Amino acid sequence: QVQLVESGGGLVQAGGSLRLSCATSGRFSSVLNMGWFRLAPGKEREFVAGVSRDGGDTHYGDLMKGRFIISRDDAKNTVDLQMTNLKPEDTAIYYCAATIYKQAVTPGEYTYWGQGTQVTVSS
């Protein structure tokens, strides 16, 4: 089993920054590809960013390119999402997820999920 616990969410003004962190634990957690998704009211779960098992490859949703950076530190068992220039439309619950697939962008490709952390961006 793999356990994922997100933290770092909160309330921020438009233009501000937040850093989300996902603590990973459990067998095989260090050999999985990781990703972040978000879920806003009335919308489908949206891919935010992904990072490969070795941290060498990253990929992003179109709306996040240039503003968000995903990284992983397997020594600390964390996967972080640095978010800058936040906009009100970034308001959502952000979820950390793990998958065996490379470059995965759909929720169905991810097997393990955290409980989520709320991010609210005020205008």
Question: What does this entry show, briefly?
Answer:
0% of the residues lie in helices and 50% in strands.
Descriptive overview:
The chain contains no helices and 11 strands. By secondary structure, the protein is an all-beta fold. Strands 2, 4, 5, 6, 9, 10 and 11 form a 7-stranded mixed sheet that branches. Strand 5 and strand 6 form a beta hairpin. The model has no long low-confidence stretch (mean pLDDT 95).
Salient structural properties:
mainly beta, seven-stranded mixed beta sheet, 0% helix
Q: Please summarize the sheet with the most strands.
A: 7 strands, mixed
Structural class computed from helices and strand pairing: mainly beta
Shape field:
globular
Distance between the termini: 40 Å
- Mean pLDDT, rounded to whole units? 95
Tally of DSSP β-strands: 11
Portion of residues in helices?
Answer: under 10%
SS element count, helices: 0
- How much of the sequence lies in strands comes to over 45%
**Uncertain regions spanning at least 5 consecutive residues:** none
- The H-and-E topology, N to C, reads as EEEEEEEEEEE
User: Radius of gyration from the CA trace?
Assistant: 13 Å
